[in-house]
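User: Design a sequence. Structure:
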């Protein structure tokens, strides 16, 4: 092929001047595909003739400009980069080097570089870095040459090794010579220099070199901000911020930034940018820098150990609890002594890697996936559990058939749940003598007051004739709210002593809307007197007014306020709670309206972060007033209505401290799980003294998880007492401007598992209250206390019909002295004939448990749905009872629930990590539950289904985790052994049925992979050690659904209870799909579904679904609102950055061609 170009040395050949049409030339080259490019490259490589080289470079410049990415791809693949770089080297050896050749070479390289992934390495190996750098140094005034060289340098710098090497060669300093204050000239040059500098500063060595220039960068940024009024140079401004962003990755850089008043400069410029939406990238990057540089604060606590302490009789030998117990006195566990942020940076990098390496957790040891052969315990030892399975030997010969014997009597150790128990005083708190919350501005309980005797609480109904619930029922036809209003019952709460009766009622009644926070059961001890006086005082003129209790009896058949208080009395709590929260007392009637998943409002997180930064900019605006503090014995000062009142001294409450930051803003600190120093997520507290219409902002400032469903549309729950007494007793999803982000409170390495430089996270929400003199409660999720469970169990008992077999045993006592109920539900045999008794005894077992994690209250609501269905009178329920024997432990962790823990029991450990080796002393509920299962396995009656109900804080919908050897092996690609594996596919049947019938259930979220981190969970241990093939964890979302009938809605108790009922119906369908004959030997049962293979493939092709039961660290949402990088716009395709990039790169192109 021949190229005929006019011999011109200094200008690009104009197409019109060529003797052949350029179109034709291009066509020739293109028609032969890559061979044309090969010819060009071969010529370029072999010719020594300067002019020929130039001519070819002209052609290349033109070809590669027009041809786009594909042509450059061909060029790179044919080795073009290397040839060009060699030419750069040889041209540099000429003296002086031809400026034109260098110009053309760098122009082509600038086009090729960004498309060649190995460009940086090739340039370094060819020795081209220094040639370009020297060229730059010598031509700082030659803008024509400068631009292509800078563009190439920018590509060099994106390689980290190159960046370090270039830094050593003074390129950082060189860039600072080019960049400068606002000027309309040479903006392209400036832009490229800033981007190059930004790339270089990703290296920490280079960042250190640039620290001295931080004031300059800030000055330049401010100058551009001031002068670029038409916002034509957003990219330059962003380039400057990019440099600052990288310098402030190192500690010295952050210090320099603070010293140079960077916070104020970026805060002010950002505030001025706020009205212009196209400036968002600038605001976002500024915000990122400011958050990084924000000085770390100390959590306002003396220690991060839980305020309440439970002395363990036996401390575990190792682990976090042992560490906690062995922590020397006087050690500050709130912050680290030295804030070594360099460590934090290294750690951040590791963190990112972890995100991508999610598969590390899959169990790859095939022996750990196979059934554990030997039973670790001799049968003699297990034999004592026989008494929990009386139904397996029951002959019904001596019984009154209509009144089945209940097991409670068979377990003398168990206190009857309705027995009134005096809270023991022997276990007074060893560390501190905790005081109850103040009442009406005064502290009724001095530190020395002995714990309250809950039996002094007494609720009496008003004497005006409608005191009896059963006679004041509303008409069934009335609307829901009307019913409630009509049914409002006048109930007075009386504190007149243990047998107080109704005598003192009138004296103690108070005007109904005026509610002392927590008044319902706050009485007792010396406080009682005070309260009585107060009431008497306020009662002047009140005509027998009383606290109105909404009658929820019709709508909540399992609820009874009086019974609830009775239950509370026998509940043992470490803080020895003496109060009852109104929502638990009144009950919750699920609203009939829909509660949508919130659309996230644009810029919410940014606004909140700016408000946080203002604390630093305008420190005088900050009140910093402690209004609630469990750590301090003396009562916080409550002034004349200037502050909200907080309280959480009731079952499941866990607010530790409240600090008024601004007039309507409060920082809240959650208490740690008892005997631990972390696990802050669950919250439940009471607020009163609010102003109507004021925009309150609440910040929970010691959250730990790196992301939260609060970033994806989940709202907090609120219960208003005023609403309740107006006939709407319910929790509602509420709060606006909700978001979750990393804050400036540092987290010590003790709190962060040894990692230094970590921070806490803030969950913030805003709230405007509608009622004066209201008492409102906020919770993470619908509360469900242990006392509520006990109440529900008593009410369920009343649902029993002669056909129902229900037994309630006490499995064991917990460390805190609460009993752990075990239910047995099945149908009575139809007769006492041998056949019927035999059928009765041989029904397959279904074993269910729930609420091992106290913060997952949704699991209890699902369990409530299951229990109510099982005890129901529907034919389905009867069939179900006839089909199975249900063994249910509805609350595996009563102590955690009572004491407001999020995750642990009183031993400070996650009970769902103790199933391999539970200790009877430390984990009694797990030890005995596992023993029940071991007993069943030993007598060849292992359950057909085992399911442990949980809640999931990071995912939507309801779904299951199961265990499959094969699916685990597929996930890990251990191909060698997989062919020998035989596995029954029955484990998929139940979730499959559920996905077909339960609207909240999602098969796509299910996973059957066994993870290493889960080897000690109920699901895996019951599968492997007990041999239950259908062993599951059922996870219910705390947020809402993104599929099915409830798509777009937040989950409520109605949906959760429905899920529990649907689970029962699914079991019935499972029964139908499994032949009764085979049921007895279900381990060999094969109930393959037609579409099994299809779903299996779906799961294995979607690796994210195997993640993870409740450690959601690795779970990534589709939309990244990542709390970490916040609104960092770099990867956002919709930022102004990208809109502008076209015109900017056109400018470059113009100047090059
Ligand atoms: Zn859980």
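Assistant: Done.
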């Amino acid at each position: 092929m021949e190229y005929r170009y006019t011999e011109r040395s200094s200008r690009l050949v104009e197409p019109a001047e060529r003797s052949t049409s350029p179109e034709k030339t291009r066509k020739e080259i293109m028609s032969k595909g890559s061979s044309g490019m090969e010819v060009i490259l071969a010529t370029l490589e072999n010719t020594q003739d300067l002019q020929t080289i130039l001519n070819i470079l002209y052609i290349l410049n033109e070809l590669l400009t027009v041809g786009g990415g594909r042509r450059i791809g061909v060029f790179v693949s044919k080795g073009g980069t290397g040839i060009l770089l060699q030419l750069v080297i040889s041209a540099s050896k000429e003296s002086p080097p031809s400026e034109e050749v260098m110009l053309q070479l760098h122009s082509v390289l600038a086009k090729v570089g960004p498309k060649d992934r190995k460009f940086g390495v090739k340039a370094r190996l060819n020795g081209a870095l220094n040639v370009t750098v020297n060229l730059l140094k010598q031509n700082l005034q030659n803008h024509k040459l400068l631009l292509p060289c800078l563009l190439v340098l920018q590509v060099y710098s994106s390689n980290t090794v190159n960046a370090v090497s270039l830094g050593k060669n003074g390129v950082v300093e060189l860039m600072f010579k080019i960049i400068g204050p606002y000027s309309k000239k040479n903006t392209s040059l400036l832009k490229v220099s800033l981007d190059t500098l930004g790339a270089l500063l990703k290296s920490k060595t280079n960042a250190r070199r640039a620290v001295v220039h931080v004031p300059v960068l800030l000055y330049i940024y401010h100058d551009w901000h001031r002068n670029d009024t038409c916002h034509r140079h957003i990219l330059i401004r962003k380039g400057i911020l990019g440099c600052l962003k990288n310098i402030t990755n190192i500690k010295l850089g952050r210090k320099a930034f603070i010293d140079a008043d960077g916070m104020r400069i970026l805060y002010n410029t950002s505030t001025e940018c706020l009205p212009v939406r196209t400036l968002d990238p600038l605001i976002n990057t500024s915000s990122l820098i400011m958050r990084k540089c924000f000085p770390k604060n100390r959590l306002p606590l003396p220690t991060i150990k839980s305020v309440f302490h439970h002395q363990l009789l036996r401390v575990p030998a190792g682990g976090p609890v042992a560490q906690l117990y062995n922590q020397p006195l006087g050690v500050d566990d709130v912050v680290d002594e030295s804030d070594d942020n360099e460590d934090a940076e290294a750690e951040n990098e590791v963190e990112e890697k972890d995100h991508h390496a999610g598969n590390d957790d899959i169990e790859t040891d095939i022996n750990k996936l196979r059934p554990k052969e030997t039973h670790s315990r001799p049968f003699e030892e297990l034999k004592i559990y026989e008494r929990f399975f009386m139904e397996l030997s029951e002959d019904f010969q001596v019984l009154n058939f209509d009144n089945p014997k209940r097991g409670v009597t068979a377990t003398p150790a168990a206190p009857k749940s309705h027995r009134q128990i005096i809270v023991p005083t022997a276990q007074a708190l060893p560390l501190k003598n905790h005081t109850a919350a103040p009442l009406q501005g005064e502290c009724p309980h001095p530190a020395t007051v002995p714990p309250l005797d809950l039996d002094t609480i007494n609720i009496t109904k008003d004497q005006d004739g409608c005191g009896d619930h059963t006679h004041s029922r509303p008409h069934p036809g009335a609307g829901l709210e009307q019913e409630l209003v009509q049914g409002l019952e006048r109930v007075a709460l009386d504190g007149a002593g243990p047998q107080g009766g109704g005598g003192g009622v009138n004296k103690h009644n108070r005007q109904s809307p005026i509610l002392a926070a927590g008044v319902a059961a706050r009485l007792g001890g010396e406080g009682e007197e005070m309260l009585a006086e107060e009431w008497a005082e306020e009662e002047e003129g009140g005509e027998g007014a009383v606290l109105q209790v909404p009658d929820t009896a019709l709508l909540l058949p399992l609820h009874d306020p009086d019974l609830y208080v009775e239950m509370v009395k026998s509940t043992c709590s470490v803080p020895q709670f003496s109060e009852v929260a109104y929502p638990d007392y009144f009950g919750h009637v699920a609203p009939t309206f829909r509660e949508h998943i919130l659309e996230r409002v644009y810029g919410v997180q940014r606004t909140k972060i700016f408000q946080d930064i203002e604390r630093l900019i305008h420190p005088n605006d900050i009140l910093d007033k402690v209004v609630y503090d469990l750590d301090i014995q003396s009562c916080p000062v409550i002034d004349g209505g200037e502050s909200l009142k907080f309280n959480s001294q009731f079952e499941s409450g866990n607010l530790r401290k409240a600090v008024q930051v601004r007039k309507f803003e409060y920082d809240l600190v959650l208490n740690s799980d008892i005997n631990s120093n972390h696990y802050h997520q669950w919250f439940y507290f009471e607020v009163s003294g609010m102003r109507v219409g004021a925009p309150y902002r609440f910040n929970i400032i010691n959250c730990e998880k790196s992301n939260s469903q609060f970033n994806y549309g989940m709202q907090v729950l609120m219960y208003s007492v005023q609403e309740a007494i107006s006939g709407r007793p319910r929790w509602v999803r509420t709060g606006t401007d909700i978001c979750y982000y990393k804050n400036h409170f540092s987290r010590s390495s003790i709190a962060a598992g040894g990692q230094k430089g970590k921070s806490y996270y803030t969950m913030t929400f805003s709230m405007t209250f509608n009622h004066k003199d209201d008492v409102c409660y906020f919770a993470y999720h619908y509360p469900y206390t242990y006392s509520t469970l006990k109440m529900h169990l008593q009410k369920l008992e009343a649902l029993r019909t002669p056909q129902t077999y229900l037994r309630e045993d006490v499995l064991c006592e917990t460390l805190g002295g609460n009993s752990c109920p075990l239910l047995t539900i099945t149908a009575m045999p139809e007769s006492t004939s041998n056949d019927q008794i035999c059928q009765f005894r041989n029904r397959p077992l279904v074993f269910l448990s729930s609420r091992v994690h106290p913060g997952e209250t949704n699991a209890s609501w699902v369990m409530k749905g299951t229990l109510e269905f099982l005890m129901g009178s529907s034919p389905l329920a009867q069939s179900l009872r006839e089909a199975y024997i249900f063994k249910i432990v509805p609350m595996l962790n009563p102590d955690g629930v009572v004491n407001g823990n999020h995750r642990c029991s009183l031993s400070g450990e996650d009970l769902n990590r103790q199933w391999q080796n539970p200790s009877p002393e430390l984990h009694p509920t797990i030890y005995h539950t596992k023993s029940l299962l071991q007993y069943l396995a030993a007598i060849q009656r292992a359950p057909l289904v085992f399911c442990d109900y949980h809640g999931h804080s990071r995912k939507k919908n309801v779904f299951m985790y199961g265990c499959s050897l094969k699916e685990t092996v597929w996930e890990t690609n251990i191909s060698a052994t997989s062919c020998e594996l035989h596995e029954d596919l029955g484990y998929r049947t139940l979730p499959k049925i559920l996905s077909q019938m339960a609207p909240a259930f999602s098969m796509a979220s299910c996973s059957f992979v066994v993870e290493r981190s889960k080897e000690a969970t109920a699901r895996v241990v019951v599968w492997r050690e007990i041999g239950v093939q259908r062993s599951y964890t059922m996870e219910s979302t705390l947020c809402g659904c993104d599929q099915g009938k409830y798509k777009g809605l937040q989950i409520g108790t109605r949906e959760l209870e429905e899920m529990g009922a649907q689970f029962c119906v699914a079991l019935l369908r499972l029964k139908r799909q499994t032949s009764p004959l085979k049921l007895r030997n279900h381990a060999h049962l094969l109930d393959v579904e037609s579409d099994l293979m299809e779903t299996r493939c779906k799961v294995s092709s979607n690796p994210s679904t195997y993640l993870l039961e409740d450690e959601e660290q690795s779970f990534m949402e589709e939309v990244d609102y990542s709390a970490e990088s916040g609104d960092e716009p770099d990867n956002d395709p919709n930022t102004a950055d990208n809109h502008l990039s076209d015109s900017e790169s056109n400018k470059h192109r113009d100047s090059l061609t």
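The longest strand covers residues 736-747. Residues 50-77 form the longest helix (28 residues).
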